[in-house]
């Protein structure tokens, strides 16, 4: 092993040991951004970038397991992404499908779909449903795969579901309006029953949410990393966690 590698490993171990266990995030949202730029810089097909990004997801979840992170939400495919050029979208959906298969084979993570299933190809939607069922009893990291996801769409879907249930129970619009509260609407979100993300990480240097967990991230801490997602290293993750641990969370106060 060369000297730079030894120094890097030493620094990584030291950084990991310095993290206070009681200040690590319970739920992390990750915007896995930069796959296409990574491929372009490497002179490779876009498909290679998406595959490298998928490989990184499996590696990242191992880091989370090691550190005791309980919930991870991965922004894998937005509703806007569905408008990409057909050949690239086809390749991307293939990579996502293969990644879901690999998640199922880990025998560790519990997978949940968060997104509008109706906008996805039937085969992918069926695979997601089967994966949710087969991993439901697992006790490892709870992984929300945001596929066909849009924050605005999620809120609209929640309102529709709330109104539909109200109608089925004979509640008038006036009654719903008078009693509606944050907790009630939250119970119709894709992530109902889960804690909001404590930390949201976005790679590739972009500093915007792009519709990711619009409702849930109201009081999240944000960490923007310059590395493209396939190049995101464990030490980059540890730095994000150290930065989070050093912050004083105010929750809007």
From TrEMBL:
Please name the Pfam families in this protein's record: Prenyltransf
| Keywords recorded for this protein, A-Z | Magnesium, Metal-binding, Transferase
* InterPro entries named among the record's database cross-references: UPP_synth-like (IPR001441), UPP_synth-like_CS (IPR018520), UPP_synth-like_sf (IPR036424)
Top-level division of the source organism's lineage: Bacteria
Please give the family membership noted in the entry.
Belongs to the UPP synthase family. Z-FPP synthase subfamily.
Q: How is the cofactor bound?
A: Binds 2 magnesium ions per subunit.
**SUPFAM superfamilies in the record:** Undecaprenyl diphosphate synthase
Question: What PROSITE patterns does the annotation carry?
Answer: UPP_SYNTHASE
Q: Where does the chain bind Mg(2+)?
A: 33, 221
Provide the species name.
Glutamicibacter ardleyensis
**Which top class of enzyme applies to this chain?**
transferase
Q: Which cofactor does it need?
A: Mg(2+)
| UniProt-listed Enzyme Commission number(s) | 2.5.1.-
- NCBIfam families, per database record: PRK14828.1, uppS
Instruction: Note the coiled coil stretches, chain numbering.
Output: none
Quaternary structure, from the entry: Homodimer.
Active site positions, chain numbering: 33, 81
Q: Its biological function?
A: Catalyzes the condensation of isopentenyl diphosphate (IPP) with allylic pyrophosphates generating different type of terpenoids.
Q: Name one GO molecular function term.
A: transferase activity
This protein's name: Isoprenyl transferase
Binding positions for substrate per the UniProt entry? 34-38, 50, 78-80, 84, 202, 208-210
For the keyword Ligase, the answer is no
Spell out the CDD domains in the cross-references.
Cis_IPPS
